[in-house]
Amino acid sequence: MQRLRTTVARLRPITATQTVKSQSQARPMAVGGALRTFEPLRSYTTSVSAEPFLNGTSSNYVEEMYYAWLENPRSVHKSWDIFFRNANAGVSPGSAYQSPPPLGGAALELANAQAMVEAQPNMEKLVEDHLAVQSLVRAYQVRGHHIAKLDPLDIGVIDFDESPVMLGLKKVGFYGLDESDLDKVFRLPTTTFIGGSESVLPLREIISRLEMAYCQSIGVEFMFINDLEQCQWIRQKFERPGVMQFTLEEKRTLLTRMVRSTKFEEFLQRKWSSEKRFGLEGCESLIPALKTIIDKSSMNGVESIIMGMPHRGRLNVLANVIHKELDQIFCQFDSNLEAADEGSGDVKYHLGMWHRRINRVTDRNITLSLMANPSHLEAVDPVVQGKTKAEQFYCGDTEGKRVMSILLHGDAAFAGQGVVYETFHLSDLPSYTTHGTVHVVVNNQVGFTTDPRVARSSSYPTDVAKVVNAPIFHVNADDPEAVMYVCNVAAEWRATFHKDVVVDLVCYRRNGHNEMDEPLFTQPLMYKQIKKQKGVLQKYSEKLLAEGAVSRQDYEEIAKYDKICEEAHARSKDEKILHIKHWLDSPWPGLSRILKGRATMVGQRVCDWALGEYMAFGSLLKEGTHIRLSGQDVERGTFSHRHHVLHDQKIDRRICIPMNHISPNQAPYTVCNSSLSEYGVLGFELGFAMASPNALVLWEAQFGDFHNTAQCIIDQFICPGQAKWVRQNGIVLLLPHGMEGMGPEHSSARPERFLQMCNEDPDTYPVSEFAVRQLYDCNWIIVNCSTPANYFHVLRRQILQAFRKPLIVITPKSLLRHPEAKSSFDDMLPGTHFQRLIPDSGPVCENPEAVKRIVFCTGKVYYELTRERNNRGNDDTVAIARIEQLSPFPFDQVKVETDRYPNADLVWCQEEHKNQGYYDYVKPRLRTTVDRTRPVWYAGRGPAAAPATGNKAAHLVELQRFLDTAFNLDAFTEQS
Predict the structure, then answer these.
(1) Whole-structure pTM value
(2) Looking at residue 5, what is its pLDDT?
């Protein structure tokens, strides 16, 4: 009886309880005229030991079943009916299955119960056996994947670090059964579908069907999902007998795809054996896997799929999934090929592609986009999600039924890169969800040279997906039909539940990390096995030939893909110039000046920084430009200055976004607080900005230095975006910056890092048109505005200019409410524009030849300089000029200023430390402007490792010291 009570406390009921109420919802029910509660049974479920028949099952299932029995005694098995009647009547646990005393005159029911007891004297054993079978079923569902045949090499690199899995015919004793029970018939619980139309099966057959469902080439992890409907859906897909059946046509299609995948790699190996290409050998089934997902998704109504992937297999995916012209791929191997477009370009296994074609299986149009990706393997994940979200937004796809994403991963990167976790956590947030992504992991079972045992702490590389309850389908990549079935299920899951799902293709890497790498140095045992391994195409073709699914003649006809490759190779030799347009992952048709005018600003009022931003956004929205502002706390603003989302002070979650109510035909304004992620969110917004040039997409860091955790996105995508990926992008980064005496954290947006990566030559004075040509030639624009009006104009310029460049805005903190940092509406009326440099307009203009010093600066320090100049009375001897646009550098306007004051020495003043900030960037450009005829002196803080001091008093001393230097007219003369 102890085993019975233990099992009772741990297991689900053996009959249907879909209508069972939870303990917190259940109410006492009347049975036979008596009001009953669970109290008489409490000891049955709370006093027993926790013998682990089933891992992780809640102990309140019996209580739930009890309340179901109270509501309807026929809703449970008769054995439970007897048990509950006895226990409810106060019978001791050891006698619970004795004949119960009368209950409220229910003579007929009592007679039935007594008759059942008399007919089955060993009722306790019967109940135990049925519960044991249920626990066995659940054990397969929970842990069957542990003994599935997932590894093509059969070397077992996965370490579960647990006791042996007690599954199989020889292990039934663990569940209280013995071999004599194998031929007994048991009723199947409603939590399994292995019976099909049968409700009872012999135990031997139950185990056989469970092993077919969970222990063959597919291993399913799903029992951690806390949604009954989703669990039942998955059980049906894998447990029903005969679910993995394919027609002859499906098998022939699968074989054809395997041939193309394999022969493509073989062709490249023959032609360019010494070239790096990161081939797909060992996981050739990836190609039919992706095509299956695309086919099924197209069948479900998807019209556009955005994909991201690392380098392994990219060329094969481009050729056989995206359908890029083979000659365009092959010509990339020509070392004498010249690029037609400007930019550095990138290696062939990093570039992307966009293609619209007919899906031959569904006969529907499908648009496929493979995003360009650097060697930072998972960096593309949030970029893909952002682009997907944007395409869904622009086509009104609010449920993700028309646009979806597929992300490919390597096993080591999937487990090791934090941006994977960050991207998963965006998956269900309202402003970031793309309504489900299919993740495909190419599981080589080894990193570059790193064994999984020292590469991750989890058993599988895919365990990170459990954080969002995504089902994980492990599959042996050497079983193409199992791969095809799993991918069909994954696509159906996404279409049904609009949630993420993971396909783990357990494979191997026939070559090393690349074709030049020797893997035997670090994985000798694995690669000895790999050398003996028969290729998956050979194994599958032999299987179909043996089945009679294809004839030898049919196979030879299918295998003529080599001829197609040879013909494409011949054509590729005629290519002398690489046309970058062939490698675009998202074309922008019709980019031009779409905004013709500006809204009239009324009145003569003054605006501060926040209102200037508000007016810039409002005018663009009214003119039809969609605006998306994202980041931590952007709705209110980190410094409580924005308030773009108003909250009802009395009704929870009732909000208003006034900017969405400007005019009837305005564009929408999306403002959304993001998750606590910079890497993931900035990548997401970058992808969103890629989808359309006619939207203003802004990401604001909570503090400027927070961008350092998104440095990979900045370094790999934003800075070199046009040069590497041939992709213009107009994303705006808002980075709060300023030395306020509050310590090193959150003081500096590290402008020196952005300036160092500018592609402009500091030693060459440009000769072309400055205002437009410089912007077109630069890799990004960096500004530090000192007035709301200039901030207003630079935001609008992002849309008004006929091309797109990333914009880095060093935004203020103290200037948000500075009484002097205000602008007149007149500065924002039609006819006004962004000022790259703001010259001094004070008394120095009356007699410029008498001016002894011109101080160049940028941003907030201007107001400290003017205050100090007024205090010193140097208004007529020291000019102060603000360089608002640092990159591209306004050489022409700086020259006007230096020529205006021919007798003035030149000083660059900044509040940042000398080895930080702008000095190293500005000095050579100032020297070039004056043709190196005058020195450029420095006024600012000295070099330091940290951005700012943590001592307020020290901060003020440093501030006064560099202000003294800036206005001491003899200081630099003495130094010289």
Answers:
(1) 0.77
(2) 40
Sequence ranges of the chain with CATH classification 3.40.50.12470: 606-737+784-828
Tokens of 560: 């003529």
Q: How far is residue 437 from each of residues 16, 407, 741, measured CA to CA in Å?
A: 33, 7, 45
Residue 608 and residue 788 in contact, taking contact as beta carbons nearer than 8 Å: yes
Rounded Cα–Cα distance for residues 881 and 771 (Å): 18
Q: Bridge partners of 878?
A: 853
The mean per-residue pLDDT over the stretch 914-939 comes to 96
Model confidence at 945, pLDDT cuts 50, 70, 90, reads very high
Report yes or no: 294 and 286 within 8 Å, Cβ to Cβ.
no
**What torsion, rounded to 10 degrees, do the Cα atoms 490, 493, 495, 500 define?**
-80
484 and 295 Cβ atoms separated by less than 8 Å: no
Greatest alpha-carbon span in the chain: 119
Place of tokens 């269900």: 428
Sequence letter at residue 436: G
Neighbour-count burial of 299, counting CB atoms closer than 10 A to its CB (0-12 exposed, 13-18 middle, 19+ buried): middle
> Mean per-residue pLDDT for 139-159?
89
Helix (H) or strand (E) holding 315: helix 314-320
**Mean pLDDT of the residues in the chain:** 83
Which whole number is the average pLDDT over 597-602? 34
Q: Where in the chain is the domain with CATH 3.40.50.11610?
A: 842-975
CA distances from 743 to 147, 816, 953, 955 (A): 56, 19, 11, 9
Residue ranges, comma separated, of all CATH 3.40.50.970 domains in the chain are: 248-583
Phi, psi (deg, nearest 5) at residue 360 = -70, -25
CATH class of residue range 248-583: alpha beta
Of 421, 509, 408, which is closest to residue 465 (Cα–Cα)?
421
Report H helices in 854-914: 861-872, 891-900
- Residue in the block written with tokens 């502002």: 629
Q: Any idea what DSSP says for residue 621?
A: H
Distance between CA atoms of residues 797 and 41, nearest Å: 73
What ranges make up the beta strands (E) of 454-525?
472-476, 501-506
CATH among 3.40.50.300, 3.40.50.11610, 1.10.3720.10, 3.40.50.720 for 842-975: 3.40.50.11610
The closest of 501, 507, 518 to 407, measured between CA atoms, is 501
What's phi and psi for 359, nearest 5 deg?
-80, 120
Q: Output the pLDDT for position 602.
A: 39
Alpha helices by DSSP H, 377-520: 380-394, 411-416, 418-424, 480-497
Cα 62 from Cα 672, distance rounded (Å): 45
369: buried, middle or exposed (CB in 10 Å: 19+, 13-18, 0-12)? buried
What is the distance in angstroms between the CA of the first residue and the CA of the last residue of the chain? 99
E strand or H helix at 923, and its extent?
helix 919-929
DSSP of 862-874: HHHHHHHHHHHT-
Section 193-222 average pLDDT: 95
Q: The domain 606-737+784-828: what is its CATH number?
A: 3.40.50.12470
Closest CA to 734 of 791, 815, 804: 791
Tell me whether the omega of the peptide bond preceding residue 888 falls within 30 degrees of 0, making it cis: yes
DSSP for 677-706, written as a single string: -SHHHHHHHHHHHHH-TTEEEEEE-SSGGG
Q: What percent of the chain has a predicted confidence (pLDDT) above 90?
A: 55
